Amino acid sequence: MKYKVLAQACQELEKTSAYLEKNKIISNLLKDTPSEKLEMVVPLLLGRVFPAYVSRETGIGLQQLKKAVGRSTGYSEKEINKLMEELGDLGRVAEKLTEEKKQMTLADETLTVEKVFQNLRKLPRITGEGSVDRKIATVSKLLTSSDPVEGKFIVRTILGDLRIGVAEGRLRDAIAEAFDVPAETVEHAYMLTTDYGKVAKAAAEEGERGLSKLDLSAGHPVNPMLAQRSENIQEVLERMGGEAAFEIKLDGIRIQPHKRGEDFFLFTRRMEDYTHMFPDLEKPAGKSIKPDKAIIDGELVAINKDTGKPMPFQEVLRRRRKYDIRDVAEEIPVQIHLFDVLLSGETTMIEKPYTERRKELEKIIEPGERIKLVEHRILGDPQEIRKFRTEALSMGHEGLIAKNPNSTYRAGRREFAWLKIKAEAETLDLVVVGAFAGKGDRAGTFGSHLLAARQPETEKLKTVSRVGSGFSDEELEKLTEKFEELRVGGKPSNVDSEIDPDYWFKPQEVFEINYEEIQKSPSEAHTSGYGLRFPRFVDIREDLNASSADTVEDIDRLFKEQEKRKP
Ligand code: AMP
């Protein structure tokens, strides 16, 4: 299949913003794609070459990519930088320069989807001496064989933003339309596989029957179910129909243990494979999880050796860079507290109600020193719930989570079936989209950051605040190093901002932010319509990515709650 077909579809998608029209373009592309190529075309349409759960960096940043464009078109870095300023996007620069190519190399081969896909996939594997140069050579070779539109989208794929307004949610409807299957069936198949490429292929080859054959598979991460915020215990009971299951909310990181015969895996909330970081858990987990095959859900917590109490988890994530993993395992023992089961032996559990899953969990787990079950109680009396919450807080936990006893496991969803009941002042988890250059003492660092909240309906990130305090010098330096790698040439297409920071970042990292007050119509024009008074940086949430940050709706709710509390 020619890459041109895909690039042309992307070009059309970039030009239209109408939902139905976009759907038509995608569904036509999917229909025209031979089914065995769908597992390449679908990720490429989302601007990536690995499924969402594989976080593999290409190791090519903006600067290297500029070099590749220069090499393939014969333009100097200076000329490229100048055009960059004009066009704001290296993809468009590549398009323009390919049109005007100085080095008249005849494109000797037609680019195929396979060729682009395989070459981009190769990038993370190029390592060792001279690897940067070899990576640049690989990309520039692709660009040399590209026409202008192909070049534009190859560059944007490497930058991770196609700027065509296609996010995962949209694929559900396009696949449904292309292969004439119900959207809910497509969604369900996606919950099980977390892979629209696989889903599209099954739908293309065997329609609804093909989709119904897809299932969970141990070793393959599932997008975890998330919890909504709640305002108070009364609201919780109303939403849950008078009674709910209450569990302790532990402060650790979400972890999804998988067992497949002798194999054991641990996946994070971002669906990254963390198995290697906790070699000391493999044996205890293998023993505690009784079925031969299982997918379990839980929280990984670090224990203070002296007090036996849980300790802030960010400590562990930080230490992992400083020490050898085996030393850390000794120094900071970890435990997994389990609260759900998705797959037990051959039985898929996610469609079964919470109470049934809990019963199964208790049946298949033999708790030990490292593997525990989260404490849970079915309660309907507000007094008793408050008592449980006080107990949890005094044990050093974050609060409680209420779970609807009849709810199924909704992979990747943040709905009202699970509700957080916290005690402390709320913080916000916001996406870092840009930064301003530091001045004075902070020269040479990103002195302050621009933060945004999600708006799932529009798939946009809306700005909420800048944050320039709460960082230690050391933190600021480390963050600068980290964000340097995430720099992109212009405003990412899913960011909606009226503020123009000095630098734009690939919207990926999340800051936890403390504030004194949420302001409606703040003095600075933020596209969320809200602003924060005295925002302070608390931490970088290494366990979250942009898709699990707080939403404008969350802020709206917190704002209303705050206003209610005012005298
Ligand atoms: P938050 O990160 O504030 O959105 O809270 C949701 C997170 O709480 C989940 O992703 C889990 O990592 C964590 N958590 C701790 N205890 C539980 C529990 N019993 N059930 C579900 N999630 C829990």
TrEMBL record:
Binding site for ATP: E247, R254, R269, E299, F339, R414, K420
Pfam families to which the protein is assigned, alphabetical: DNA_ligase_A_C, DNA_ligase_A_M, DNA_ligase_A_N
Location of the active site: K249 (n6-amp-lysine intermediate)
Keyword Magnesium on entry: yes
Catalysed reaction, written as an equation: ATP + (deoxyribonucleotide)n-3'-hydroxyl + 5'-phospho-(deoxyribonucleotide)m = (deoxyribonucleotide)n+m + AMP + diphosphate
PANTHER family per UniProt: DNA LIGASE, DNA LIGASE 1/3 FAMILY MEMBER
Its biological purpose: DNA ligase that seals nicks in double-stranded DNA during DNA replication, DNA recombination and DNA repair.
Protein name: DNA ligase
Organism: candidate division MSBL1 archaeon SCGC-AAA259M10
